[in-house]
Amino acid sequence: MKVLSQTSKYGIRALLYMVSHPSGSEYMSIGEIAREIDLSFHFLTKIFRELTAKGILYSYRGPSGGIALAKPASEIMLVDIVFALEGKDYFDQCLLGLPGCGHAKPCPVHDFWKDVKHDIRVHLSGTSLQHLSEKIVSEEVRLLL
Amino acid sequence: MKVLSQTSKYGIRALLYMVSHPSGSEYMSIGEIAREIDLSFHFLTKIFRELTAKGILYSYRGPSGGIALAKPASEIMLVDIVFALEGKDYFDQCLLGLPGCGHAKPCPVHDFWKDVKHDIRVHLSGTSLQHLSEKIVSEEVRLLL
DNA sequence: CATTATTCAGACAATTTTATCCGAAATAAA
DNA sequence: TTTATTTCGGATAAAATTGTCTGAATAATG
């Protein structure tokens, strides 16, 4: 059941690490994040370039450079990250793959699937990085392998 | 949002076509099904071999051979097809990809995701081919591109 | 100015998924 | 008994996703 690509999974985990482990300085280096959450530096760099292009991160090159959130963590919702990395049509797809599945021409499981997607969307839209970071900091929950 | 592989999507659609278009004779040919729902004969053959191996279908070779449901359509649930084609660990995976995510060592979105998976599982376990076939036959719903 | 640390850009490779194809085996029908 | 039809098994190819690597651009610091 692969609801999110590896790219999104890594991206969300990396952003949560950033928020949960503020570095004191403005920017945090990609290398440090990759090391801490145990994933490929180069792959994470690619993901963060995308998030920078989509306006979720700022970046700054050179020594003491790195990346930083473009908005307060309380204003970045999971759905923003998913849309940035999976595309804005993320919630538009039919469970059975029928093109143009919708109210007018529904597939056999359309109504059910519409409800599931709605629930997921509501939850991802209502959950901020700040919110989840608090659960991580309080050790209610884990982020590492 | 790719919840089901192409394999599962095709498999479910093909089985629904079978149930909704009984052929009179005991077996229905894979070629006919592939033609009617507009997908690759060879790919569908591969999918059906798997469903036969998993006990969801019977098959019979030779002229007037083909495949047939191994049980009444009212007893084949969507979850059976998904388990057969995606694996029995289908509902075991963490949204963020953390290995061993569960009650003891949850990821930040574990509780939410557990509920979503439960809802999906309940629905797929409660929906039979017969049930959906009735919606198709009454043209409440479509199966073709 | 030289060195070092960092992101940026994109080529390349590996892996997985999806799709195509061919020949063999089975079996009904001519 | 021959021929036609069908599934079976697996090799191969194509496409998408995931992961690796190299060099360039940028900027702080000695």
Automatic annotation (TrEMBL), chains A, B:
Pfam families: Rrf2. Gene3D superfamilies: Winged helix-like DNA-binding domain superfamily/Winged helix DNA-binding domain. Signal peptide: none annotated. InterPro entries: TR_Rrf2-type_CS, Tscrpt_reg_Rrf2, WH-like_DNA-bd_sf, WH_DNA-bd_sf. NCBIfam families: rrf2_super. PANTHER family: HTH-TYPE TRANSCRIPTIONAL REGULATOR YWGB-RELATED, WINGED HELIX-TURN-HELIX TRANSCRIPTIONAL REGULATOR, RRF2 FAMILY. This is Rrf2 family transcriptional regulator. It comes from Mariniradius sediminis.
